[in-house]
Every structure is written in C-alpha cells, then in structure tokens.
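The authors assume throughout that readers already know how a fold can be written as discrete tokens. A single example would do more here than another paragraph of explanation. An entry of this sort, consisting of the sequence and the corresponding backbone structure tokens, reads as follows:
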Amino acid sequence: MQKIEAIIRHFKLEAVKNALSEQGVQGMTLTEVRGFGRQKGHTEMYRGTEYAVDFVPKVKIEIVVSDDRTDAVVDTILRSAQTGQIGDGKIFVSELKEAIRIRTAEKGGEAL
C-alpha cells in the first residue's frame, strides 16, 4: 500500500476530486494547510496597509491506494492540479505498513 499526499491550490480541489473519483478512488482526507516554497508568499492590502503573507494557503489531500494503482493516481493528480505556474504544489508518495478499518477490524487492502 502507498500513501499519496498532494498539496495543491484551493481552486484545483474540485477538478482533482472529480478526476480521482473517475479513477475509482473511493476516499480521501482533506486538510487546509499553509506553507511556502519557491513561491515565497505574496503581499496583500488590508485597510490601506500592505502586508506580507509568508505562508500561502493550500489544500493537502491524503489518499491510500494499492501499489498497482499508485502511478495512475499520481498521474491523475498531476494532470488535474497543474497550472504550470510556481506554487502548483507537491506530491509525496510513501510506503504504508498497515491499514486497519476500525469498524470491522479488517486489515491491509480490505481496509481500504
């Protein structure tokens, strides 16, 4: 099993969610996050004063998939989240040791 974490722009969330649903992804976890990378934040005006916003708001999606579906899910996220601009986000893939469904105590792939 693989855990895929994708940090994307807010306005791309619906497109990513719909594309993943079409791929048969049945569940995901969503977290509102803030961070910075090469984009280095931006400035905003509030009541006539300019403020630096160092941490840019993003959305983090977490998905657990079987090993054989990892590449397809990553490609789907790439295609649907990409704008070609700095700040599009990142995708992290990591090995997942175990998954357990709390309600039934199913383990591994059955728990997904």
